[in-house]
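Workshop exercise sheet. Pairs work together: one partner reads the sequence aloud, the other fills in the structure field after running the prediction. Swap roles for the next sheet.
Pair: D.N. / O.F.
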Amino acid sequence: MSTPSDSPDMLPPNDLPPPPPSAPPPGVGPTQEERQWAMFAHLSSLLGALVTGGFGVFIGPLVIWLIKKETMPFVDDQGKEALNFNITLAILGVALLILTVITFGIGALLTLPVALAAAVAWLVLTVIASIKASEGVNYRYPLSLRLIK
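Structure field:
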C-alpha cells in the first residue's frame, strides 16, 4: 500500500518551489494612494509627450515626484525612476535630431528607425511600469541613466 508521500505528484512541504514574485499582500508595502500616484508618475509622461510634441516627457514625472517625494516613499522611488527614464529618452531624441540636422537629413536613414524603435519601446515600457506601480511593485526601466538618485 502506498502512502501519499510515495506518489510522484505529491511533494513534501519542504520541496515546494518558491512562489513567483508578485505584489505585496494587503497591508504590506505601499498604500493604495501611493500606488496610484506612482502609476500617475509613469503615465504622466504620455500626457507630456502629447502636449509638448515629444520632448516634454519628463515634465509630468518631475512635477509628481517634486510634490510627493517627501510624503510618499514609493512615489519618491517610482517618480525618480520615471523621471530618469524619460530624461534618458529626451536626451536620445535630441541626439538623434542633432545627428539628422548635421548630416543634412542623410542621417535620417539611421535616426528614423532608431527613433521609431525607441518610441515603441518607450510606450510599451511606460505601460508596463504603470501596471507594476499600480500593483505596488518597484519597477526598474532597462537602459535608463540614473541621473537623479
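Discussion prompt: Residues 62 and 83 are 6 Å apart (CA to CA). What would you look at next?
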